[in-house]
Amino acid sequence: MYNPISNEFFDQLNVAMQRKIPSTIVYLKDEGNKETTKGVVKTMEVIDGKEFLILVSKEKIRLDTVLTFNGKRHREE
Fold first, then answer.
1. Whole-model pTM?
2. How many domains is the chain partitioned into structurally?
3. pLDDT at 18
4. What is the pLDDT of residues 28-72, one digit of tens each?
5. N or C terminus of the chain with fewer C-beta within 10 Å?
6. Would 13 be classed as within a structural domain?
7. What are phi and psi of 5, to 5 degrees?
8. Edge-to-edge, what's the strand order for the sheet holding 50-55?
9. d(CA 32, CA 10)
10. Mean pLDDT across the chain, nearest whole number?
11. Is 1 among the domain residues?
12. Where in the sequence is the domain holding 45, given as residue range(s)?
């Protein structure tokens, strides 16, 4: 089930995207395994009704799987 992100998190993502801030993202990957990636946020897109963060590297991360973004917690594990 998809859970929309908070407005605060959305605002933080927009700032990182506009300022091209290199970011560290910890998120849940397949089967609940934690993954850490670093990169610059290029854009956000809705794909099949779910919001995704797209990095310059073209990596796609579903926003509701993000645990922390630049050290700030957005979801419990």
1. 0.86
2. 1
3. 96
4. 998 789 999 999 999 999 999 889 999 999 999 999 999 999 999
5. N
6. yes
7. -85, 165
8. 60-62, 50-55, 34-47, 22-28, 66-69, 72-73
9. 23
10. 91
11. no
12. 7-73
26 close to 68: Cβ distance less than 8 angstroms: yes
Q: What is the 3-state secondary structure (H, E, C) of the chain?
A: CCCCCCHHHHHHHHHHHHHCCEEEEEEECHHHCEEEEEEEEEEEEEECCEEEEEECCCCEEEHHHEEEECCEECCCC
Any idea what the CATH number is for the domain that residue 24 is in?
2.30.30.100
For residue 44, tell me if it sits in a domain.
yes
Q: Distance (Å, rounded) from C-alpha 22 to C-alpha 51? A: 20
**Domain assignment of residue 35, yes or no:** yes
Half-sphere exposure of 35 (CA within 13 A, CB side): 15
